Amino acid sequence: MTSPPPPDIDRLLAPLPEDWQRRLRHAHAARVNAGLCNEVYRLTADEGVFALRLNHPHPDALGIDTARERQVLNTIAGQPWAPIVHHHDANSMLSEWMHGEAPLGGASTRLHWLAHALESVHTITTPLPVIDIPEQMTRLARRCGPDASAAQRRVDALLTHYQPPNCRVLCHHDWHPGNLLIGRGGWTLLDWEFAGAGDPRLDVGGAINGFALNSDQITTLSRMTGFGVSELKRASAIMTALERLWFAANPTLTDDAYLRLRQWIEAN
Q1: Interaxial angle between packed helices 200-210 and 229-249, expressed in degrees from 0 to 180 and rounded to the nearest 10
Q2: How far apart are the C-alpha atoms of 152 and 132, rounded to whole Å?
Q3: What are the tens digits of pLDDT across the range 196-238?
Q4: What is the pLDDT of residue 35?
Q5: How far is CA 106 from CA 176, 234, 262, 267, in A?
Q6: pLDDT score for 185
Q7: pLDDT tens-digit readout, 35-65
Q8: Which of 210, 209, 175 is nearest to 190 (CA)?
Q9: What b-and-e string marks burial along 81-97, b requiring 16 or more CB atoms within 10 Å of the CB?
Q10: Closest C-alpha among 9, 4, 36, 33 to residue 21
Q11: CA angle 245, 249, 255 (to 5 degrees)
Q12: Segments of the chain assigned to CATH 3.90.1200.10
């Protein structure tokens, strides 16, 4: 079995400023399996190791606003858990390669650490573009083809008792072990494309889903975060719905998007 040809370094570096193109021209590039939306490469050069992200050509369809992401990254720059970004524009991002291991999920999740990580992000109240999850769900439901009306009815029912937060804080909206690294110097939270000012309850709900927490763990996390168990279970259900709608609105990203959407619509 032959190995794939090495990436074309000139193509990879083309979106970067000339200074970085020159500095990385002789770097060794290897593609990394990192998510569904973008191309990510590890660049090993004489001066260090870097992560190069080449953005999806149609970010709007995915709900990604690179200008919003840049504002978030500028806001969190210097935080011990933030990525170290060297260049960011509409087409690409170049950052330091962060070393570490992904945290464990499921029954092995370290809940004290997860609560601390969530709180560390949520303490940032700097004004940022708002991420309105209910509004996003409605927009995504419209893009669900023949299931659009049924999806919207399910969204309306799910949001019946939802109340917007009194205060919006920085929310990541994509908490799962694959977006986190724990190393000798601490932890790093990656992939800020969906971040913005949001509802911290929904952000915790997303973490519940991303770390596959069970009912007992949700109860423990409730005590640690100060949010009620019912609030967090509702938040988890809303973020599950958002995921199903997002994949159904972008069906080329996975093979079973419509099946999973219909299963969600027909549940309960």
Answers
A1: 70
A2: 16
A3: 999 999 999 999 999 999 999 999 999 999 999 999 999 999 9
A4: 75
A5: 11, 19, 26, 23
A6: 86
A7: 788 999 999 999 999 999 999 999 998 999 9
A8: 175
A9: ebbebbebeeebbbbee
A10: 9
A11: 90
A12: 106-266
Token digits of residue 63: 């709900």
Tell if the pTM clears 0.85, that is, is over it.
Answer: yes
Looking at domain 106-266, its CATH superfamily turns out to be Aminoglycoside phosphotransferase (APH), C-terminal lobe (3.90.1200.10)
pLDDT of the residue at 13: 97
- Based on its alpha-carbon atoms, the radius of gyration of the chain, rounded to whole angstroms, reads 19
Class of domain 9-96: alpha beta
pLDDT band at 75 (very low <50, low <70, confident <90, very high): very high
Among 117, 123, 121, 109, residue whose Cα is nearest residue 220: 109
Closest CA to 145 of 262, 249, 255: 249
75's tokens: 């806001």
